[in-house]
Description:
76% helix
Amino acid sequence: MRAKRGEGARRMRSRAYYEAHREDIIAKANADYTAHREERLAQRALYRAAHADEISEAGRRYRDANRLTINARQRLYRANNPEKVAANKKRWYEANREHVAAKKRAWAEGHRDHLRDQALRSLYGITLAEYNALLAAQGGVCGSCGGPATGRRKTFHVDHDHRTRRVRGLLCDSCNLAIGKLGDDVEGVERALEYLIAARRRAAVWTEAVA
């Protein structure tokens, strides 16, 4: 009983001393931290380097055991500090721009078919498998001129009706551009054909006249 009373009295005296000298104690602690900050950071870095696997495993266990709590805390922080979060993201991106770009390029290179499939679905409503089947049906050549794929990417363009969005075939760069310039319809192609036929006839008449 006396021991308990003595312990309680010591705690009360310690508490009273702390309250009376609170500012001095805090100032001294801050001064001590500042004076030895670099040394402590160096010691901490050495410890982390020597126990990297152990620290990583402990962090993983903690995250697995507290995933819901951590996610909720992060969502709350992001909701309450949108400007800080945006600034941190921007600062991190600026410091790691080349790393991010290299990572994106590597991912795109390893998922080229996936990205192509997504683009075809989004733009034309067909899959990469359907694109390849259509190309095979055309014999692997342009559906208009029968030539190979041209342009920088060496791939065929998906030709589609701009009114119905229905896919018509696969074209090389030149044919795709030509059909677009002619209005993307039969009437435009017929007018161009009529012009060429008339020009050929005029040339023939001129040749005969000269001869």
